[in-house]
UniProtKB/TrEMBL annotation:
Name listed for the protein in its UniProt record: Cysteine dioxygenase
SUPFAM superfamilies the UniProt entry points to: RmlC-like cupins (SSF51182)
Gene3D superfamilies (alphabetical): Jelly Rolls (2.60.120.10)
């Protein structure tokens, strides 16, 4: 039997791990939804609420490479549109609310890139949101604070800073575009 809900989550992911499939995403989403039901009295979760760290690594799998992070975000914190390179990510709201916008990337015949916003979703405590490779989104904390679990199938710092595969978009006169456009 697992010691706590965090260990149950990790054991569950390890037992299901494999190539990206609809089933793997569904399994990881379900396991994250279970993790969101953890008792606030569990030591690891109580510490997250007490410390309110903007970025804390909860687990990094040495064999499979997936990472579970916890982020405490403050009201109005905005993360502009970006993708996750080759990686896929599941956000799980433990506390608070975050608005997540989804975008499509449009490339004009002259090569100029712009984003078109598809929709916006308010992700509340107990809910999860999945982003697959190539998906583009932004986030904005809508409550005084929010505690978000971010499960990534690979280390996104490597994907971003070392391999330069993450695309971040910039606002140019009201149009989201790449730095290169």
């Amino acid at each position: 039997m697992s010691a706590n809900s965090l260990q149950s989550f990790l054991d569950g992911v390890k037992s299901k791990w494999g190539p990206l499939t609809s089933e793997l995403v569904a399994d990881c989403r379900d396991l994250l939804e279970d993790l969101l039901e953890a008792s606030p009295s569990e030591e690891w979760l109580a510490a997250l609420h007490a410390n309110r760290s903007p970025n804390e690594e909860l687990y990094r799998d040495p064999e499979h490479g997936f990472v579970l992070l916890a982020h405490t975000e403050q009201a109005g914190l905005y993360r502009p549109p970006h993708d996750h390179g080759r990686g896929w990510v599941i956000y799980a709201m433990q506390q608070g609310e975050i608005e997540m916008g989804a975008y499509g990337r449009i490339e004009a015949p002259d090569g100029e890139v712009r984003l078109v916003k598809r929709n916006s979703t308010l992700v509340r405590a107990g809910q999860v949101q999945v982003y697959l490779p190539g998906d583009i989104h932004d986030t904005r904390c809508m409550t005084s604070s929010a505690l978000v679990f971010r499960f990534t199938e690979r280390d996104l710092r490597v994907e971003d800073r070392q391999e330069h595969r993450v695309t971040r978009y910039v606002d140019r006169e009201g149009v989201w575009t790449t730095d290169r456009s």
